[in-house]
Amino acid sequence: MSNNPYEGFQEFVGQVPDLLQPLLIAVAGAIPYIEGEGSAAIGVIAGVHPVIAGLAGATGNIICVVLVVLLSSRIRTAAVARRLSRRTAVRAAGVPVAAGAGSGLSAPEEAGLAVPAEPEPSKGRQRLRRWIVRFGVPGASLIAPFALPTQLTAATLVASGVNKSWVILWQVIAIVLWTGLVTAAATGILTVITG
């Protein structure tokens, strides 16, 4: 009888070509809620060398986060430009920016412009915003994985107006740190379990 409870899983992964294993770990690292640390731990359990599993998981997560930050930044820039052009159009129409007297409507609503309702942010996003205020971007990036995936954290940081370079820097630091810690823990636990 084997001491290794993961032997079947490791044999299955062993059938995948060695060059494909890190690629699969990187793809898993790009998936929210699995991310770099989860994919690296799965890779270690599957029998992939811990350094390769950690690097592949972190790389997949980082690539995905960078793409999310760049896309979020473009969306935010377009939204801010659109909001500015609406204000300019309302002012050009001669509608005061302040709410009308006694109507209960805002100036854009009085001018016949639709004002979209702000959706209630999720509990995780509310928690992230509190962390941003309390700990700044570095602290929020490092502790946010307890509340939200790095992709959502990065998008929320960019949407709140944080510079995209600053978001990328701290998200990369957080991903590398958490992936390294979880990879080391998974390696240690697997060593204890398998002897």
Supply database-style keywords.
single chain; 195 residues; mainly alpha; 0% strand; transmembrane; transmembrane helix
The run of helices and strands is: HHHHHHHH
Average pLDDT, rounded to a whole number, is: 83
| Structural class by sheet pairing and helices | mainly alpha
Number of domains: 1
Residues in helices, as a percent range: over 70%
Low-confidence spans? 99-103
SS summary, helix count: 8
Shape: elongated
Distance between the termini: 14 Å
Major sheet summary line: none
Percentage of residues in strands: under 5%
> How many beta strands in the DSSP annotation?
0
Computed CA radius of gyration, to the nearest angstrom: 23 Å
Describe the protein:
The protein has one domain. It has eight helices and no strands. Helix 2 runs antiparallel to helix 3, helix 2 packs parallel to helix 4 and helix 6 crosses helix 7.
Topology:
Layout: H1 7-14, H2 20-29, H3 35-45, H4 50-92, H5 107-110, H6 123-143, H7 150-159, H8 164-194
Describe the structure concisely for a colleague:
By secondary structure, the protein is mainly alpha-helical.
